[in-house]
Amino acid sequence: MFAVGVFVRWWAITVLGRFFTSDLVVQTGHRIVQSGPYRFVRHPSYSGILVCFLGIGLAMYNWLSLLCLLALVGAAIIYRIRVEEAMLAKEFGDEYVEYRRRTRRLVPGLF
Fold this sequence. Notes:
The chain is mainly alpha-helical. The protein is built from 4 helices and no strands.
């Protein structure tokens, strides 16, 4: 699970290329990337992080540890997604709203 999560995050970062930063910022020439993993979900990098922590939690063989890890990391990611999506909707308007309508946040077909 951990390796799958690392791969998904790496793939997302690679597809974003120069647009990937740890800061929430729209760069000069920025566009909405809709290829690679971004054709399935809006935040595949965060999906990869969650899968990594799912793998870590499962490796602990303790359901309480798994739930705590996913709850804490999940809450932080959901908060960041809300801030990021507000910024992108403001910057890109209808184009981002349409992309958001077509894709899920983290899990294809579910969420």
